[in-house]
Fold this sequence. Notes:
The protein is of the alpha/beta class and 245 residues long.
Amino acid sequence: MGTRMRKAKGNWTSLKPGPANFNALSPVSFLPRAAEIFPERVAVIHGTTRYRYRQLYARACRLAGALAKQGVKRGDVVAAMLPNVPAMLEAHYGVPMLGAVLNTINTRLDADTVGYILEHGEAKVFITDRVFAAVTAPALKRLKRKPLVIDVDDPLYTGPGERVGTVEYEKFLSEGKPDFGWSLPPSESDPIALNYTSGTTGRPKGVVYHHRGTFLEAAGNIMAWAMPAQPVYLWTLPMFHCNGW
C-alpha cells in the first residue's frame, strides 16, 4: 500500500494540463454553449429585430471569419466606437475568437482624443456607427496609418451622420462563414480587450484585460447579482465602459 501510494504521488508532477483536463478560461466560451443548449432562446432584442442564440453565434463567427480574411490575427487590435447595438455585442465575441484584442472607445470623446487612441492602440480595423461621424471623420484624417473602417448603419437611427468607411457592416459580415473554425486562446492570460481612460489628466492611458480576468469578472457578476436562470434584462450602461462588465 505504502509503495503504491508513493509511486502514485511521484507521478503527480507529470499530470500537466492538457486537452483532457484543461481549458483556457474565456468569456468567449459562453456563446457557443448558449447556442448549443438554448439555440432558439432570444439572445438579442433591437427594435423589431430578434436574434436567437444560434443566430448570434453564427453572426459572431461570420465577423471573425470576415476579419480573418482581412488579415486580422492574434494580438491585432480591432477598435469599435458604437452604441449598444447588435454589432457591439457581436464584436465582443467575434474579435476575441481570433485572439485579436477589442478596443472599445468612449463615445463621448472628441476627435483629437479618438484619433490618438486609434493611433496609439495601433488599430488594424475600426468599426463605427455613422451617428458618431462628426467625431470619427476628423479623427481618421489625423492618422498616418489608416485602419480598415467598417460602417454600422443602424436602421433605428435616422439622424445626421455620413458613412466614413469603405464597407457597411452587414455586407462585411456576409464575407464570413457561420461555421468559421475559431479556437480559444492558447493562454488564458492572452489579452482580450484594450480600454483607455478618458484622458482627464492628460492623454488617455491604455489598460489591458485578459481572457481569464474577464471570465471571472462575468461569473462574479452573475453571483453578486444573484441572477436567476434564463433572465431577460436590459443593459443600460454603454458597453465601452469596462466592456459591459
